[in-house]
Every structure is written in structure tokens, then in C-alpha cells.
Amino acid sequence: MTQHQAISPPPGTEQQICVLRLCNRPASLAASLSWGSARFCSHEHREEAASIKLRELTRIDRLLNRIFLLEAKWLHAFRTYAAARSSTGTLVLFQHEFDLPLKEQQTLPETVPRRLQEVGYCFNSCVHVLEILVGVLAFFAEGSLEVEEVDILHVKSNSSVIVIEDDPDEPRVKYVAGRHTMLKVSSWLGDFYLDPTAPQYGRPQGLQRCDEYLQRYTDLRRQHGPWSCVFGTRYKAMQSRMSTSIPGSEEWYHCIETHTALRSINNVVYQVVKDAGGPSLLREAGDTVWRTVEDTVVNGVDKKLRELRCDMDQIWYSTRLSLWVDFYEEALYRSHDDGNAAIMNALVRMSGQELKP
């Protein structure tokens, strides 16, 4: 038997086709030529398909990570202005809320390296990441991946981090939350975690196999999870808070701003990806094509979120307080476009929940 000859299926059993795209050969029933639920006609096609799927996951992960850091850069309320190491090795970040327009902030000297600024952005932001990025993930994952939202307790840190937040009365010390939230993506290749806020635990962003993550970064003796939620659960909760909070309250402003940022991101991603042929075509595009699309998306998101921040500054520093609610509602209304609608429809289909765009 040659490497491309399949073991015949039992009588009455439908013959499977090799999973590798554009291969129409019958798949083998040999255990060594399967990977999860996928079957292949040869070892070469098995390894090639696995490489392509892993590349797809890595690309999506990197894009989400870059978008999140941009959103935090332009819209995060607090900035890290100093950092130090304690005698025990704990990284201490000092943050305060800038009461200055963006243009004036940019004239201040950078006293903290970008890497530590990003740790500050990631600190206790894991739920916020899911609120703003689920649409983009659904757009790329639909038809290729299954997605869940996962909570894990007792996550270990490579390097402990605490934040000391300036307060007019008394500084507040904040610790990493006891519950960590991530995205779990699954396919025939296996289960992986996407962890955009990993820097808060002293490690870089990047794709992690679920079983390896639990072994390396959790105390299995104390671990009663992970707990899984339906994809889109955190976004739906944010929508609910937005609709029930009092207009003009801190909670209401935060939800409106988050929703406006999400829509702005979705509009950029949709247009760039659509012009490039759509997500299904890009999944298997060459590295040069993908990187061009990824950089175009990131540059577009960077520009759009900077504009959004300037709009917010215009409201905060040039408008009477009595008009803030109207301006915020107008910004949210303007941010809804065909791109956001298309991306959120993908999330609705994947989650099975009733979600408003």
C-alpha cells in the first residue's frame, strides 16, 4: 500500500476525504493519519494541514493582541507614570488618571518603557478585552473554529505585579484579580487559549495549548475550573449594563465608550478584510499577503481610535457637562456602520444569543 492509498472503510460507512484544502483523495482510517476529528490521506498532508491551522490561530491571536493594545493606548483612563521593583521582586506600577487632553499628554516626557506601559494596560483588563474583541474573533473564526469564554482561578504569575493608583485622598493598592478570563478556541488541532492580557502575569502575549497552560500556570490542587461561558457572554453583559445604567453615570459613560470603540474597530477590520477577499481566503493566504492586511488593519484601527479619543477630548474639555450625554449618544450612533453590523452578525451566528450590534 502506498502512502496515498486509504484503508477501505467498513461496508455502509461513508468514505471521508482528506481534510487538507484542495485534496480530494480518500482519507485513511489509520490512527496515525488522523488528528482529533480530522483524517488525512498521507503523513505529509497531515503535517501540512496542522501547520496551516496553527498559522491561522497564531495570526488571529497576534491581530487581536495588537488591536487591544491600541485600544488601551488611546482610551485607557489611567497611565503608568513610574515603575519599580520591590525587595521581593514584585513589579510595582504607579498610575494616575491624566486630567489633560491627549495633545497635552503627548508633550509630557515618557518615563516608563513601552513594555511596562503595556503591563499597565493589561492589568485586570481581561473581561474588557472580551467586550471589545469578540466581534473581530467571530469574523475570522466563523466556519473554522469554535469559541468559548473561560474563567480560571489561581493563575500563577511569572512575575508578580501590583498597581498603586493615585487618589486625592489616599493611594489605592490594586492586586491582580483572583479570576482570570480568556478566550478558548477549538478545532481538530486541539484547544488553545488566547490570552491578550498575559503581561499582567509577567509573561508575553501568545497562543497557549489549554492542557499546557493549566499544567504550567495554575495550581491544579486548588483549581475547580475552568468554567466555560457561551461566546459573547461578556459583550451581552456589557450591553445589559449600558441599557440599565443611568445616563450620565460613570458606568454608563464607560459602556458607551467601550461600545463606540468596538464599533469603530469592527468597521475598520471589516472593510480591510473585505477588500482583501474576506476571512476565509485570508486564512490560508501567504505570509506577505497576511502581514500586509494585518498591518493595514492595525494602522486603520490606530487612526480611528486616535480620532475617537480626540472626539472624547472635545467633549470632556470643550463642552458643558450638561451636553456630555447627548454627545456620547451621538458618537455611539455615528459609529454604527455596515461593517460593524456584518461582524456582529457573525458573532450572533456563532454564539446563538440575541445580541444587539
Could you characterize the architecture of this molecule?
This protein is α+β, with helices and mostly antiparallel strands and 357 residues long. The protein folds into 2 domains: 1-41, no CATH class; 53-351, no CATH class. It is 48% helix and 16% strand. It is built from 11 helices and 11 strands. It has helices at residues 43-75, 102-105, 114-122, 126-141, 210-217, 233-244, 250-275, 279-282, 287-318, 324-335, 338-351, and strands spanning 34-35, 38-39, 78-85, 91-97, 146-153, 161-165, 172-175, 179-187, 190-194, 208-209, 227-230. The strands form 3 sheets. It has a 5-stranded antiparallel beta sheet. It has a 4-stranded mixed beta sheet with strand order 3-4-6-7, covered by helices on one side. A hairpin with a 2-residue loop joins β8 and β9 (190-194). It is globular. The N and C termini lie far apart (55 Å). Mean pLDDT is 89; it is low at 1-6.
